[in-house]
Design goal:
D-Maltodextrin-Binding Protein, domain 2; alpha/beta; 338 residues; 2 domains
Length: 338
């Protein structure tokens, strides 16, 4: 039934024009999996009476909105990566909005300084460590320490999760020091940089490595059994340490949204964004995919809360994103994925 409703909404949005859009509706274009945001949209509709028509796009979000031009029915553009939000703003398909609610709820480093986009949930790039390892604190810089030679696992350096971390390193220390650090991390790898984040936990269980870098929410997915009984065993083999930069905090990425430049229902769009940073919505985010809420004090799933207090890095995501290309070039330069 939910699938049928989703397809109906998708067809409806595809044929909408600003002239026929009801004031009690808004249109959401998103690269976020429908199942993850459906509970949020249903709760918003129940509380506001505003219907949300959803179009899911695996990729090509910016290209579609550009092609639609001023006649685009899109009100909100939602993505799962800070870089994608910055790209949307740079392509000129978003608009700045003013909202004291959003400004109060979303930390400054997790939103655009001019109000073009806002983080709505986040995940940390954390350390998975063998459960019996005597380790309670860790710095990203330590990944290149020779004492970890042959003991580090990580997915490909060119994966966006890692280029974001490496870009953050550049923001802290510059390209030259980051190159040296990446070369040191490569020297410490227990195996080729490859696979997925959950493979880090699997390989720690298998004795291939002692530590590795991966996203925080995967621990929730493994521990909960949503990935199957085998992955529960992977999760049981590790503990999570929240690493930080020596002069900063834990590197995070976000899922977030922007109001489309030609939004026919701008007021309703802003209301939805403001709802998504409410205590109710932030709790739903935390439960749906084991993410961290962006709003201080909002509920966190117990699995994730057990990691300890998350101190997010102070570097603005907009600055970090600006170093992505350079980070990618350094990955190739040191042969990180070879």
């Amino acid at each position: 039934m939910r699938t049928h409703a989703f397809l109906t909404s998708l067809f409806a949005v595809a044929t909408l024009s600003p002239a026929v859009v009801s004031a009690a509706e808004l249109n959401l274009y998103t690269t976020r999996e429908p199942a993850l945001i459906a509970p949020l949209l249903e709760a918003f509709t129940a509380s506001s009476g505003t219907k949300v028509n959803t179009v899911f796009l695996k990729d090509g979000l910016a290209e579609r909105v550009v092609a639609e031009g001023a006649s685009s029915p899109a009100d909100i553009l939602m993505t799962v990566d800070a870089g994608a939000l910055v790209d949307l703003a740079e392509k000129g398909v978003t608009q700045a909005i003013e909202s004291s609610v959003l400004d109060a709820a979303v930390p400054a480093q997790l939103r655009d300084a001019k109000g073009h986009w806002f983080g709505l949930s986040m995940r940390g790039r954390v350390l998975y460590a063998a459960k019996d390892l005597d380790l309670s604190a860790f710095n990203y810089e330590d990944l290149a320490d020779p004492k970890w030679k042959g003991k580090v696992c990580i997915r490909a350096g060119q994966h966006p999760y890692n280029t974001a971390l490496f870009a953050d390193y550049i923001a802290h220390y510059g390209a030259a020091d980051t190159e040296k650090w990446l070369a040191g991390v490569k020297e410490n790898l227990a195996r080729k940089a490859a696979g997925g984040d959950r493979d880090v936990a699997k390989d720690i269980l298998g004795g291939i490595c002692d530590i590795g870098i991966a996203n925080s929410y995967y621990v929730g997915l493994m521990t909960s059994g949503k990935g199957g009984p085998e992955q529960v065993k992977w999760a049981e083999a590790i503990k999570v340490v929240l690493p930080t930069f020596k002069n900063g905090g834990t590197q995070v990425n976000i899922s977030g949204a922007a109001v489309a430049k030609h939004a026919p229902n701008k007021a309703e769009a802003v209301k939805l964004l403001e709802y998504l940073v409410s205590d109710e919505a932030q709790k739903i985010y935390a439960e749906a995919n084991y993410e961290y809420p962006v709003k201080a004090g909002a509920g966190v799933d117990p699995i994730i809360a057990a990691f300890g207090t998350l101190t997010i890095d102070s570097k603005p995501l907009s600055e970090i994103v600006g170093h992505r290309k350079q980070a990618s070039e350094l990955v190739d330069k040191v042969g990180f994925d070879n």
